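Q: I'm building a small set of examples for a reading group on sequence design. Run inverse folding on the following structure and report the sequence directly after it, with nothing in between.
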């Protein structure tokens, strides 16, 4: 990729509604396969059910050193 951007992948977190199994609305700031510039980027996942109950957010940092790793 050009402009010093590198694709990064990870296993996405799993959220489940433990009360009634209703579908969840998942919001994320980045997704696996997105490109990142060298440096650190915080990735945030949040989940909410249809009655607006929110799960504890999942937050982690992706650090790109600017070198390809194969």
């Amino acid at each position: 990729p050009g402009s010093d951007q590198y694709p990064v992948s990870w296993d996405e977190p799993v959220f489940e509604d433990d009360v009634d199994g209703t579908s969840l609305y998942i919001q994320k700031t980045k997704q696996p396969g997105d490109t990142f510039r060298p440096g650190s980027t915080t990735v945030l996942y949040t989940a909410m059910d249809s009655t607006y109950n929110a799960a504890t957010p999942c937050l982690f940092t992706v650090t790109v050193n600017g070198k390809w790793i194969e």
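Residues 8 and 54 are 27 Å apart (CA to CA).
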